[in-house]
Specification:
A five-stranded parallel sheet has the order 1-5-4-2-3. The protein is an alpha/beta fold. It has helices spanning 9-12, 25-30, 46-51, 67-78, 90-93; strands spanning 2-5, 17-21, 37-38, 58-62, 84-88. It is globular. 29% of the residues are buried. The chain has five helices and five strands.
């Protein structure tokens, strides 16, 4: 799995890129990056929800600081996703707009 600085995400965003926010519902509602897909890593249905995603997309995973997103990305790779990137620094380092 690749690691990039969270703010580099903007340059890599394209029609094949999917941003997945794995923070809790409460954290996500406090502020998130526009158009991010929310799938809570602590949810009992996390793997079920991840398995519904198209495996041919480029996935960029974000959490608060980069730890949970790394764990989520590894889980995605274990079930067959090949294009997974951890956004290091997470929302704590994000300098862009939040909704």
């Amino acid at each position: 799995m690749n690691n990039i600085n969270v703010n580099a995400w903007v340059e890599l965003k394209n029609e094949n890129a999917v941003l997945v926010d794995v923070r809790t519902f409460e954290e996500y509602n406090e502020g998130h990056i526009k158009d991010s897909l929310h799938i809570d890593i602590f949810s009992p249905s996390f793997i079920v929800e991840i398995e519904k995603l198209e495996k041919n997309k480029d996935y960029y995973i974000i959490c608060k600081s980069g730890g949970r997103s790394m764990t989520a990305g590894e889980a995605m790779e274990n079930i067959g996703f090949s294009k997974v990137t951890n956004l290091a620094g997470g929302m704590m380092a994000w300098m862009g707009e939040q909704v």
